[in-house]
């Protein structure tokens, strides 16, 4: 009898827990569906003409719906006095210009013109491109095997070079006067590049080698195996998801993405110290949280009782927008307004330096 009561209590406790978790996740999902691009910005689709190849480059352009733009709670800003700064967005590996509409509309609504392009994998083949570059351009991202890991330096160099080449062509077309209606009032002396994932690596490359860009933003991408790793002379912001535990890095079945991530962490730490770059980690965030997948994916499918709790979409939205807008406004509009770790979930890279793994001696947990 006593055993039956105990079993019943365990079952009831399980049902109550499931109801609480399910109700919380349902409410979160319902709230996420209400998140959409801000009505403080308007958008248009334009096909630019590549000045080098005469082929079309589809882009999506966001601009403020009103001038002066409505005030944004994340920044203190009195409005532009010399036109609107330009932000060019580079998407993820295989991504589209529409992958981050919520964030880009928020940037535009705060007083910027934002131009978003597609990933290079969606472009038409260029007869002048060599076979090795074309293979890297079209290949899906993979970090599953030892070969993927060992070839990553070459892959990164080739693909970020191709991504940067497209970024230059987009900027050249814009400066040539194309899409003039949507670009009305643009100030080409104040340009930033923002990228997510692979796009973040392209942004890092661009800010390292191209003086036309006044500032760069890397949203959970990488700087390792790009020219940025050697140091930067211009303002750079990197915002990353929580790093995965490093325990399996040097195991006999290593997680190569985790290994690359921690190697990149070392580069970011160096940039924060030597170049004054702003580098932040968001605890409770995942890679997909830096795009509109944040509002569309079925997060409940990935829920596990033992997994770390993820931040609510609205919280991540507020954190990223605040860090990003403070940085862009501080370097393109009002100098001096810089991003700060005002959120409990946000830590600077220098705060977590002690978590960085070191390679063990050979024969002690080594993969070799």
TrEMBL record:
The record's annotation in Pfam families points to: PAF-AH_p_II
Q: Which UniProt keywords apply?
A: Hydrolase, Lipid degradation, Lipid metabolism
Q: Does the keyword Amino-acid biosynthesis apply?
A: no
Per UniProt, what is one GO molecular function of this protein?
A: 1-alkyl-2-acetylglycerophosphocholine esterase activity
GO terms (BP aspect): lipid catabolic process
The record's annotation in InterPro entries points to:
AB_hydrolase_fold
Database matches in PANTHER family: PLATELET-ACTIVATING FACTOR ACETYLHYDROLASE
What's the name of the protein?
A: Alpha/beta hydrolase
Organism, by scientific name, is: Rhodopseudomonas palustris
